[in-house]
Amino acid sequence: MIAKKNYEKPQLLTQRPVVFADPVEEACPEDLAATERLRPLYLLSRRTDLKPIATRLAIHGDRRRGDWQRVFHDPGASKESEWQNADGEWFFLCYVPHGSHFTIELQTLGPDAKTRIAVANEVSIPAERKLGLLVLSKKHGVAS
User: What pTM did the predictor assign?
Assistant: First the structure.
């Protein structure tokens, strides 16, 4: 007979309140246009030996890279249908402007607990695409 574990009620250990101010004015047309230029960028990882943990990017012409941002696992529900049947795990990386060329650096955690960085240069998402896709494959690293 297998003994059941006692149920332990989850407890909130820490909290960090955040207050958002109500906007007093509507967004200007320039802000709306900038938002419409953004596209979600996803990673399809076919590797089981590496876990994506953070990413940062630099748009062409930037002198420095952005800050590292955490990579989020994504179940794939929001991808275009042509990619939904692809093998591997989906990760959401960030939002990027379409039509701009940028370099993306992906920090991964290996089975030996060491972090490694994969780099994809000159990535661009065409204006007609709703989202972008990077593939982390077995042999070729990150490809766009």
Answer: 0.65
CA–CA dist 106, 84 (Å, integer): 22
How do residues 75-132 score in pLDDT, each as one tens digit? 655 555 555 566 788 888 888 888 888 888 899 998 898 888 888 888 888 888 888 8
Question: What confidence tens digit (pLDDT) does each residue in 42-66 have?
Answer: 888 888 888 999 999 888 777 777 7
Backbone φ and ψ of 47, nearest 5°: -100, 135
User: For residue 102, what are the β-bridge partners?
Assistant: 59, 123
CA dist list (Å): 32 to 29, 37, 56, 85, 95? 5, 9, 24, 33, 15
For 46-70, letters b (16+ CB in 10 Å) and e give ebeebbbebbbbeeeeeeeeeeeee
Can you tell me which residue has the tokens 């089975």?
Answer: 111
39-143 belongs to CATH 2.60.120: no
Domain residue ranges of the chain, discontinuous segments joined by + = 39-143
